Recover the amino acids of this structure.
């Protein structure tokens, strides 16, 4: 997975349930991002973290929460407050070498049942 | 935020023809312009990028051109093949990273 591992690949959530998506990287990158992708649509930024113990809201943060306790890990929790969570979720890191190149994880497909 | 506008949203071409996708940005601080290809159900993959001190970059059948004055950059795919069918995203850099809304390219055999 190019140094970024997302799990699980598929996730099913019941109404009113919180679920957590995992994103782990061994690239030693400081910056990590979470995006949501809906069918036929682009990538919308949920949260990002540029350094350990710090994170910022993106454009659609409502109903989501994150933590960044370790450099390698940036888990995303989809809370019951997110009313339409069915989507494809992508985690990414950004190279610190100056070219701002993204490396994406393979994604998690979340479905509400 | 600083948006990136991408056009067209869908594009169909005959195999062997060329395809052009354009992105317009507003952040003057942008200095790096990558293009990503996303096949169905998979993650986006970087296919080509260009820096602000270069006007054009080519890699086999794909090329990217940059017009800093007009604030737009374009992806060009020549001699298209069915395996080029995918969704393509542009992205800007600057104070924030924003992706374009994507272009669904279909190459008709």
């Amino acid at each position: 997975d190019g140094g970024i591992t997302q799990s699980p690949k598929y996730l099913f959530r019941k109404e009113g349930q919180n679920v957590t998506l995992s994103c782990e990287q061994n690239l030693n990158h400081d910056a990590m991002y979470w995006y949501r992708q809906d069918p036929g649509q682009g990538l919308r930024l949920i949260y990002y973290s540029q350094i350990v113990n710090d994170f910022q809201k993106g454009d659609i943060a409502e109903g989501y929460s994150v933590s960044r306790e370790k450099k390698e890990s940036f888990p995303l929790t989809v809370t019951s407050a997110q009313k339409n969570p069915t989507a494809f979720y992508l985690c990414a890191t950004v190279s610190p070498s100056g070219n701002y190149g993204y490396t994406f994880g393979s994604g998690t497909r979340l479905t509400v049942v | 935020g600083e948006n990136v506008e991408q056009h067209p949203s869908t594009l169909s071409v005959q195999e062997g023809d060329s395809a052009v996708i354009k992105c317009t940005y507003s952040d003057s601080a942008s200095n790096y312009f990558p293009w990503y290809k996303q096949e169905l159900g998979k993650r986006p993959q970087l296919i080509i990028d260009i820096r602000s001190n270069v006007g054009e970059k080519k890699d086999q059948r794909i090329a990217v051109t940059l017009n800093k004055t007009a604030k737009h950059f374009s992806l060009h795919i020549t001699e298209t093949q069915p395996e080029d069918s995918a969704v393509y995203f542009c992205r800007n850099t600057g104070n924030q990273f924003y992706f374009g809304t994507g272009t669904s390219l279909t190459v008709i055999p």
